[in-house]
Amino acid sequence: MNAQHAKPTRRDAVDNRERILAVAREALAESAGASLTGIAKKAGVGIGTLYRHFPNRESLIIELYRHDIQHLIDLAPELVTSHPPIEALRRWFDEVARYGRLKYGVAEVIHAATNRGLDDEYYEPFLRAIAVLLDAGAADGTLKDGLDPEDVLLQLSVLWRIDPAHGGDARAARILDLIVDGLRRPRPEPASAE
Question: Which among 11, 37, 55 is the end of a domain?
């Protein structure tokens, strides 16, 4: 196991790590320039504790990325089993939009670490998560048949370009409405009475 991926074993170390990640997620979504010192202070840990878990800013950002992407991958099948497919898809898209707020300011770090996505171990699992949602919608007739998960991912990639500080949530919601509308199976035209 890679030392960087090693999980702390003491309960307080695990709690510290999770608190740092939670605070960092919020701080970086507000401002890509959030300081590590400020993150440590808000998390209630010393800067040395933060650096023991994350030796530099990039390692913290990459761990947030891994954590959030895995959450999205795991969430897709959960949503499909607990909601109608079209609602599951939209709820999942809303979670992707929340992730987009973080990625907006730190995309360069993530792209550099994953070779612009070419070396991203989460790429295929993420596409499979999208496929789970699309397949459920196609099976119940709410979504078009034969939708390509990669096409949907490309559409979603606009979310990391939306500046959260300038109406980002409202714009993301409008864009997601457009994406979902484009994925829906057209309703049959009512027969005309002649």
Answer: 55
Which CATH number do you get for residue 18? Answer: 1.10.10.60
Contacts 24+ apart (CB under 8 A), 174-183: 176/90, 176/93, 176/94, 176/97, 179/93, 179/152, 179/155, 180/86, 180/89, 180/90, 180/93, 182/155, 183/89, 183/134, 183/137, 183/143, 183/144, 183/147, 183/152
Q: What is the C-alpha separation between 193 and 149, in angstroms, rounded?
A: 40
Can you give the CATH number for the domain in which 87 is found? 1.10.357.10
pTM of the model: 0.79
| pLDDT > 70: percent of the chain | 86
Domain span holding position 2: 1-55
Rounded Cα distance between 154 and 68, Å, is 18
Tokens representing 47 are 């800067």
Q: Tens of pLDDT along 15-39?
A: 889 999 999 988 887 777 888 999 9
Sign of the CA dihedral with 62 first, then 66, 68, and 69 last: positive
Q: Is residue 99 part of a domain?
A: yes
163 is a domain residue = yes
Give 11-18's long-range contacts (Cβ < 8 A, gap of 24+): 13/53, 16/43, 16/45, 16/49, 16/53, 17/53
